[in-house]
Here is the input.
Amino acid sequence: MTSPRPAYHLANAVRSGARSALEVAEEHLAAIEAGDSAIHAFNLVTADLARRQAVAVDRTVADGQDPGPLAGVPVALKDNLCTRAVPTTCSSRILAGWCPPYDATVVTRLREAGAVVLGKTNMDEFAMGSSTETSATGPTRNPHHTGRVPGGSSGGSAAAVAAGFAPLALGSDTGGSIRQPAALCGVVGMKPTYGTVSRYGLVAFASSLDQIGPFAHTVADAALLFDVIGGHDPCDSTSLNRPTPRVLSVLDDGVAGLTIGVVSEFLDGAAPDVVARIRSAADALAAAGARVEEVSVPEVRFGLSAYYLIAPGEASSNLARYDGVRYGLRVDAEDTAAMNAATRSAGFGAEVKRRIMLGTYVLSAGYMDAYYNQALRVRTRIIEGFAAAYERFDVLLGPTAPTTAFSLGEKTGDPLSMYLSDVCTIPSNLAGHPAISVPFGSGDDGLPVGVQLLGPALSEGTIMKTAAVVEAAAPELPAPALGVPA
Amino acid sequence: MKPGWELVVGLEVHCELKTATKLFCGCPNMFGDEPNTNVCPVCLGLPGSLPVINQRAVELAMAIGTALNCEIRPSTFHRKNYFYPDQAKDYQISQYDEPINVNGHLDLPDGSRVGIERAHMEEDTGKTTHAGSSGRIHGSDYSLVDYNRSGVPLVEIVSAPDMRSSDQARAYASELRAVLVASGASDGKMEEGSMRVDANVSVRRGPDDPFGTRCEIKNLNSVRSLGRAIDYEADRQIALLEAGDVVVQQTRHWDEDAGRTVTLRSKEEAYDYRYFLEPDLVPLVPDAEWIQAVADVMGPLPAVLRSQLVELLGGPEVVTRAQTDQVTTVVDLGLDGLVTAAVAGGVASSLALARTANEAATQAEAARGIDPVSYVALLTMEDRGALTATQSKAVLTELLEAGGGDPATIAAAKGFEAMSEDSLVATVAEVVASHPDQWSRFCDGEDKLIGFFTGEVMKATKGKADGKAVAAELRRLRS
Here is the structure.
């Protein structure tokens, strides 16, 4: 059994000269041109940049050199990844038109691997949201059903891959922002171990939780992209200075001998059709030779509450710099403090303001211990809860999201119900552990369901080889009507 | 200090570390260059940028801790959140409840000891210049920010409230400055802002009373300002208390021209900085080996240098008060090497010290750069009587300007030659004869007139006479 790997084959075709990178780029640009008006996956399509990079790749091949493992493979970048001289907005009015003077480390690594950047994808403003509806540029629509959300916050990247606009995309995951949209859009999305992918050049939301990760059609392509972007970066102090897990080489090793725990707490709040799919995936793993048992990790129930204190606390500090002084939006007023306030009032959307206020409050003198510090203690408990589970299990399993894609506007008026979309994904961020979402058929509404596989720190190889088995057993998911086939 | 009152002072000193690059990025640590040229995404706080600690800054912080007898321990960084245009990220990265250096002390030349509560690392802000008449933010037309200073490494040294007089506070600031220079951590220039001192001042009735309410005084740009501001503030607080009023906890600004402190902000207006652990950095855990390596390469501290000079002079029991001050001056200015070189070359230690502390010190920058061989040669000539003190000083001025040279050649070019003994005796006799009143007073024991006669002899000889020889001749004539 070999996990399918379209991006890998595309790169090999370009490297061998069988296909031209420019022709591949043009195909994808044409697909975006034809289909993105209905989806709005992209904030910005960098057609000229993509063509220039593709031509450079073709020239490298013509010169007899190897452009790298992603030769000519188009990649879409979430719009919170800094791209030199290319607008990076975080889907916020406050950063409208801002062009970073530098590339994020992952962007540099993509270029060095021969990838071609197609554009910047839509997201919830500053990655705060689970539906891509808090974007200042308008919502992204789910390619499987344009009346439904793509999930979020990396909804644009997930939709771009699902719609066939890009074979690969990068997102960021602070509480589920890669895995949840991957599940809702029927693609693979992986949040790596905290510290395995450099955050340098990722516009921070919650620094202790943020992690960049891959979107792809298949587990193997996600592994390919992870191998390119991972590894130590001296520009990020939290980057692990140790070998990144080898993923591609173990991908087809199978699950025989692994012990896999189905987390009962994750099933509790999930819709019955989603639970049914998770149980089928568990059966498939058992059939492939894994020992599968149900397990309780009671601490994860407190993840959501802790997350909504820690993440806003950090965000309130990270987003202070948008003050109108040197870049982005400025709304003038009579003095500096009034200018700061006017700029921030006009520049941030409601959800961002809500979280800044929440975060400012939980860090304030007199409240910090009751809220922020208490949340940190809960975070430690969650890490301990996982540690206990990983004494018995190699991998944990559950749904990525409690439901399939919900309708646009359905939850925008009720932040708490929106926050619950991330109840299964948040614990991995709090623990700093890797987790992956793999499509596994559809729910009663015909929309994609994602299976989530979790493991301890640096277990990317283990969870991805498990994901490959789930992927192989997954029921056929109808391709979205939009876009071009991969 | 007004009788019946005791002053209590603690100082918070920020010093810029003398690193090649900034605290969290690779930009040159060169404040004073063309504005906003030494900047990058990190020190400009651009979205997506991340800090990476400068190892050299950690070493210099540990050197300060070692010099101040601190316990050096694992530490963390926090974010101090507040909005200000020169604060690039609108938070400052600073050590908070787990600083790198704690529980040290500094011994002052007078033998007193001042406790050091902590010496922690933090980043500097950019520098704001308010354009307009006042130079303050209020009433300015616009403001300019230079981010070359943003991210410059600082160590903040917080003393215990152990000082009991403005003189002691001044001595502490001077000694700390000398320690920072000697440890290689900072150039300690208060006037240029590389060392910035804030004073916490309170008063109480006596040592058994609890501390009074304190005020923090900012904008102290010299050791002299520090002393003046403390004295002013103590008087202000005493006047309040004696009038039955209370001291309100405040941050106050020292107005150098007006010679007084004015309110900057009260405790109620104090910011809530919302400190929390900086998630972009990891804990700093220096191992014993690294700490020892830093201590091993550190030069001798001022106290050690001073006691070495005192030994050269014959030991503490023979050193005069004036010489003690000269020793302090020489060490503070980093000129002790000239004294030891001269003594090693056979020059009398008292002469070597006096010339260095009184003359070379007036041009300390030039003196630190002078060729010691030239300096020793000059003092040797003076010591042997080949040049008078006045002549020697004139030659020294030229040596300092040129950075060195042959003192004999310069002396010859100036026509300097020592007077013959005969002509000196004759000149002294002439001067004595023309000032009979002074001479009889001198003979009656008014010894200070020796200076008057020496001055007259110098005038008559255009400075060629050797002062010591003149004094000896005067005493001989009187006896």
In short: Chain A has 16 helices and eleven strands.
